[in-house]
Amino acid sequence: MDMNSRSILLLCSVALVGCAHRPCQILGDLFGCNCVSKRPQPEFQDMSVQLPLFDHTLTPDVDVDGYTLQAIRIAADDLLKAEPADLPCGEKQVSYRYRALRKGDIIFVRIEFKPENCGRTVGMLDDGATYAIGVDGRILRRELDGG
Questions:
Q1: What Å distances lie between residue 103 and 47, 63, 128, CA to CA?
Q2: pLDDT in tens, the chain (147 residues)
Q3: What phi, psi does 110 have (nearest 5°)?
Q4: Is residue 93 within 8 Å of 83, Cβ to Cβ?
Q5: 30/104 Cα distance (integer angstroms)
Q6: I want to staple 99 with a disulfide (CB 3.0 to 4.6 A). Which of 6, 51, 68, 110 is the partner?
């Protein structure tokens, strides 16, 4: 194998193997590899914030699997609008409490208004909903409070 062929082989190998790694992003783009996340990085990072070590000794406040997270997001997006800044507090997803229970391939999600998140002590009437969502992402059932 001549030097030119080796260079091409090396270049292709790096592109195929390394396209998911940051240093190879440009090379991957040249070869049509879209496997690198192109999320914008934060403008700054607060290095005074100490990140916990997520190992077997840590007991998290919440441990949510991907299907449960998907179900919660589907239910929240169905009940409440996306979060433009001009929404009143009571209509924002962050103003609600989310509880989930998984039974087989169905995840039950309960969403309720949490008045404390809006600086209130009293909730609203008809302030929530209960969902049954399949692991395939389909809403199987929805029951709105007061409905």
A1: 40, 16, 21
A2: 565 555 454 444 444 444 444 455 555 555 555 554 556 666 777 778 776 777 788 887 777 888 899 999 999 999 987 766 788 888 888 888 899 999 999 999 999 888 888 888 877 767 789 999 999 999 999 998 886
A3: -110, 130
A4: yes
A5: 43
A6: 110
